[in-house]
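User: These chains co-purify. Model them together.
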Amino acid sequence: MKALRFERNVPRFAAATIAGRLASGAGAKVGPLRLRSIDPPELPGPGWVEILPRLSGICGSDLSTIDGHSSRYFEPIVSFPFVPGHEVVADLTDAAAATLPADAAVPAGRVVVEPVLGCVTRGISPVCTACARGDLGGCEHIAFGAIEPGLQTGFCCDTGGGWSTRMVAHTSQLHPVPADWSDEAAVIVEPTACAVHGALAADVQPGELVVVLGSGALGLLTIAALRRYGRDCTILAVAKHPHQRSLAKALGADTVVEPGEVARAVRRATGTMAIGDGDIVRLAGGADHVIDCVGNEASLDQALRVVRPKGRITMVGMPGHVHVDLTGLWQREITLAGAYAYGTETLPSGERRRTFDLAFELVAAADLGRLVSATYPLSRYTDAIDHAANAGARGAVRIAFDLRNEKERNRA
Amino acid sequence: MPRPGFVLDVDRSTPPILFHHGEGFRLERLPAGRSRVIYPAEPLEALKNPDQAIRDALANPIGDSEPLSALLKPGMKLTIAFDDISLPLPPMKRPDIRQRVIEAVLDLAAEAGVDDVQLIAALALHRRMTEAELRHAVGDRVYDAFAPHGLLVNHDAEDPDNLLFIGTTEKGEEVEINKRAAESDLIVYVNINLVSMDGGWKSTATGLASYRSLRHHHNVHTMRHSKSFMDRHASELHSANWRMGKVLRDAGVKVFQIETTMNNNVFGTEGPMSVLQKREWEWSLGDRLSFLGMKGALDKMPARTRRSIFQGWQAPHAMTSVQAGEVEAVHEVTTANVYAQHLVPVEGQTDILTMGLPYIGPYNVNSILNPILVACLGLGYFFNLYRGKPPVREGGVLIMSHPTPWEFHPVHHPSYIDFFEQVLAETTDPVRIEAEFEKSFAEDEWYRHLYRTSYAYHGVHPFYMWYWCAHALQHLGQVIIVGGDVRAVRRLGFKPASTLQDALEMASDVVGRDATITHLHNPPILMADVS
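Assistant: Joint model of the two components:
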């Protein structure tokens, strides 16, 4: 089968790191990601099934990996070589569905993959405490069990990933797609689930000011999630590009400002005093929450500058090595927390819901399929990566691979 | 005998016309056969002995007023209020008119044995004046005698302990002014009437007022009904101030008004800048070389250096009249004297109005003409320099030339930055802006703190600048800025153009291909008297 595969190759990794520093997405041309003809992954065990990807998104963490920016933190929790692609809508064929035992039956048709590889997918019983709570993202066993280490599908050598014509998934990972949905809507469910989790993890209280840093796909989805599932709050979004500004507004931001305007906008919104003679050296107060959907040094530094004493920064965007001054975090008793993936959420009403179910509802309600701006065949993967890496500047939001017309997919 | 202003019809022999362009200039050819240029009058003769003229005015008041010397008594409380840094433009060479007048008033006060005297810079919601600026305005002798004792102060429109509510007009407008001034036995107000808008009751009712009071006439409705605010009898802004003046008078607040007019000798008759005051076809070879040299040098300089040079310019303009006494009677004479310098008869309106905006306006002395101030200078001040009707027809196009940099002076204009970044990003509609945003800016504690303790314009001030544009925005079909920062121009809601020819081409979409054009050759200041 045809697949984009990320291989352990130190020279290529070094080349990607250098190229990625020069231009975002350039790591795709020289790095360890290669278009290969490989054998499809084998079924790891009972409850697993082969699926045929239709669309698979390119997310920030993928780009970070391709450009060699990812932290070495991931080394023990991924397994090489892996096929990326964890935002996936795929076909579950009749034949494949028929192979499933009755107690794990999933109807044939289109499915969205919930990619976290928790205890159930790994055949581990009893499951860890996090999985028992339904907090799949916190699974303690992502490097153990019946399959090789991998925090998610798309980072595990045993499962394959969405950037190929075939992959495998555990039935517990599959969510049927409503018949009237577009593939574009379906493929945005996974990042939407991340955003829902991030928005709810922030635990925003009524009347609070939330700053959302970044209006790429994750930022826009977080705005939509805050507006739908958060308490009544004021959302101040930070967007670099005109189309991001208009989408942020449309999805529920009360105010949208440019990156250089955040501190002044927060001061205005909160009415706080500022230190500085007209220029803001430091805010006296600040925003109640900052949700960082960028995840780099500059965004974390900005978050620390605009959050109030005892406020909370929630990192939804994946960070890596950053160098920031945490004196303010200490002196202002700021909470810095991560928000990874999804699992089960507690809504403001107290109701417990699976994040993916909430994401499905949000995608439908806010018409989030419109955020998929362009698709590419696997053969044009360098173009696709380049487009995704520069999506904002090129008026796009989410770029995805389109596997629907791949010959190899339809040949089997 | 100075030559009056006049209107030149542009033909093929007309040389390129000077457009001010911030801290630079452009020479532009206007289309022959359908363009005209309004030139200002040459500077009027200066008073030969201004100090004597001041003494004469104080001794021979106009209207229902005794001579100043008769109003000054031992034991009385005297407040001398004077116009702030926004006047004149550019700042004048020393001695400033205010110094001359204040020294004359203080001489009389001393003769009368008045020892409770306080001087107040009547800056309303403008920024506080620095020591250097106060020294320039009132002179070192006055500054050193009063300032160290806290007797020369900047008005503070946010000082709850030093504001006094006087009453309301018949239209419900609240009148609240500086308490020290209101409780004085006499306010002597020292004006510099650069343009016909200045002076009259606007001096006390605006210059010494609080936001609570000012908001009744500094608003969109008032500005849209001031056509123009340079013509008192057609200006709702002035009507409101006159109503407030009546409240002050009825409450026993006694004002002795001293108003002065000045000629429009902005650039002098000698030196490289003098060419800016000449009509282009009268430029000598020396003038041309001088202009080209100046322009070439300026174009090569960093913006900061250019700004520093221009902001350092002190104009040689001189006093042409001084009158004192009862507010309204004084102001009538003053206005006639201002008009004598500024009014230029103009027949009818054209489809397009062009203007070159200079480096300075009332609110950027020793500062930066930020984009909001650019808009205000063009659409607020220059557009309103008319009597009768605007020189451009309703639905016509205004073309302004200015670099319009996205740049702000953070100390002077902190709330302008937020207004530009947040409010104008949302809407440029003055009515919406007033309804949705004004209150929060006006009551913002940080802006209040900076206004009171630093050198910041009040938080609400950028709103007033935008309201100043409201009449023009309502009247015009399109506004184009030539040579401006594209992003900044768009943020203002205007169209950017690279050249005047591009701007005229863009304007043709609104007013047709054979549109008629008026160019306002300003500064030096002129006012179109449009029939």
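Residues 2-190+366-411 of chain A form a domain with the Quinone Oxidoreductase; Chain A, domain 1 fold (CATH 3.90.180.10).
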